[in-house]
Amino acid sequence: MARKKNKEEKIWAYKLKHPEASNREIATATKASYAYVWKLMSKIGTPKEVLEKDVVSRETIPEEPPALPPLCTRANILEDALSKIDGDRHEEYGDAAENFDRIAGYWNAHLGLNAFITSRDVAAMMVLLKISRLHGDGPKDVDTYVDICGYAAIGGEIAGSD
Fold first, then answer.
1. Which of 6, 32, 86, 136 is the most buried (most CB within 10 A)?
2. How many domains does the chain have?
3. Does residue 155 contact residue 147 with C-beta atoms inside 8 Å?
4. 92/29 same-domain check
5. What digits encode the pLDDT tens for the residues 91-146?
6. Residue 65 is assigned to a structural domain of this protein
7. Coil, helix or strand for 139?
8. Residue 138 lies in a domain
9. Which long-range contacts (CB under 8 A, 24 or more apart) does 7-12 make?
10. Same domain? 36 vs 112
11. Is 34 in the same domain as 86?
């Protein structure tokens, strides 16, 4: 049985086939977030296979990411959230409603509750977890807002199907 490619492998495979592709093009094609592609490209640099072929990308990667990338718009944040919940996360964790139902069951069991927490509550509490990170001392990056949008969308979908 062939092993399924993880997100990083998909990104590098695309970059090898399309060495001139921008980070945005790679993110769109591989259904990964722009921020993840940027971090991968800036942290790792060019993969060995590309160097061996003497293929040089025209795209330059700045030392530090811009404070607000020009493509960091409301629409792109929502698109990124959609690509995660319908792409990466769906592939990794399966159906969100089923996953949130399972999480609710575990939380109820842990707290000694009898079906008190619902899958809708799980979505709301995950949004609150992300909001709490915005108020903490850690980094306050765009990915947190993308995740909030994703959890809110899943919660809305669950609420609409009740």
1. 32
2. 2
3. no
4. no
5. 788 888 999 999 999 999 999 999 999 999 999 999 999 999 888 766 667 888 88
6. no
7. coil
8. yes
9. 7/32, 7/36, 7/88, 8/40, 11/36, 11/37, 11/40, 12/47
10. no
11. no
Query: Tokens at residue 85, please?
Result: 């919940």
Place of tokens 């609409």: 160
Contacts within 8 Å (CB) and 24+ apart, 26-31: 27/80, 27/83, 31/83, 31/84, 31/86, 31/87, 31/88
Residue partners of 57: CB distance under 8 A and separation at least 6: 19, 20, 46, 50
* Domain shared by 144 and 89, yes or no: yes
pLDDT of 55-78, one tens digit each?
444 455 555 555 555 567 888 888
Looking at residue 73, its amino acid is T
Range of the domain at 22: 7-52
Other C-beta atoms lying within 10 Å of the C-beta of residue 150: 24
Show the tokens assigned to 106: 């575990």
Q: How confident is the model over 84-101, as pLDDT tens digits?
A: 888 777 778 888 899 999
Residues 48 and 86 grouped into a single domain: no
